[in-house]
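Journal club prep — side note

Before the paper discussion, L.F. wants everyone to see what a predicted structure for a comparable chain looks like in token form. Sequence:
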Amino acid sequence: MFKKGIAITAIFIISNFIQLVSQIVVTRLFGAKLDLDIFLAAVALPTIIVTVIYGTLNDAFLPLYGEQKAKNVDKADAYFVSHLFVLTVIGFLAAFILGFFARPISGFLYAGRGGDFINAVSFQMTYMFYSIPVSVIATICGAYYYLHKQFSRFPFAQAIGSVTNLLLIILLVPILGIFALVFAFIINIIFQIFFVIPPLKMFKSFKVLTFKRLNFSNFLNFFNLIACWVPLIIGSLALRSDTLIIRSFGADLPTGYLVYLNLISKIFILATGMMTIGIQILQLPHLVEYFSGKRYMQAITVVNKSKMTAVALSVAVTVAAYLLAPFFINLLFVGGKFTRHDANITNSLIPIFLLPALGWGVNSVFLQPLIALKKQLAVGTLNVVALILAWTGATVIKAYYGPLAAIPVGLIILLFTGIIGSEILWQKEKSRLLSAR
């Protein structure tokens, strides 16, 4: 696990470096101006949804797909293809429905910015919702390679997507302006699909989709996946609402603050996230295998080592980012339309993200043992409770101390409620497993 983790982490470091370069390019091209504020507000929810799909569909699908493969390889191929087809159709329907409600969604999140801002946000958001079906395809295809222990394939595809996104922005901004970012957001995911398409022989099982073969067993399989996935979607949407907290409360600040807040949060998320992503990718398949084989002591050892490593890495990276971020912001971001004054405001916001940075680094690692045990409902409930507490706490703080103070309070409540709650649930599950030996 350690050697593979290093390789995967290296891929994500490269991918995150490319994303950082994209952030630099976008910041210099547009500056802390209204156009970029609008895009950041519009892309917040589609980004969360895509992130949720990447994080939860694999968690729900992989254990069930693994069980099918263990029983019968041929039926597992049919299971894979049928779910790929049906979930893609569902993804397009979801994109259409969300696009229809883009205006009221934007109005709820950014009511403080007025009608023109909301209209512009909803227009861009409508198009970016069509990233949903393509992210479903990419994730299902990526699950095939995870199950076959080719752990670096999907991360490599995501790195290719980051490169594509950067190149499209550079090429299209002179032509399309801010809408180049909208276009690049969707196309980069499509490029990822080409690098994770499974062997074509698998698609011979496409015959399972004929009406003659759509029997009760097929529908039961889809129901089982949806039953596992929906709680994860709800919980992960709640967990990933950190971006919505930042941008919804940040929208009440002067123009440009969405750019400043996005810049600092991205630096900390990329820094802490890339150092623990290898742990996350490798931990889940191994835990699924160990729990299925009732090798509980091996699973507990993996969980303990993963958590300790994630905490240590997150602390180290957060401290390093705190010390180095001001230097690199002044060195790399200042230029074009992003001024030295913008950099000074951005640097002044660094301290409010220190504790959230620790949470970003370790939260998913703490949740995965419960997911491997198929405790999706418990995870979803925990994260929804965390979101309710976070939004309520941030709203109260905003009323007394303003939106800038509300943002870190909301993030800390959201992330650490999830971490502490998942650890309590895991300790209970661990006791149950040990007593069952």
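L.F.'s comment for the group: Residues 208-212 have pLDDT under 50 and may be disordered. Keep this in mind when we get to the figures.
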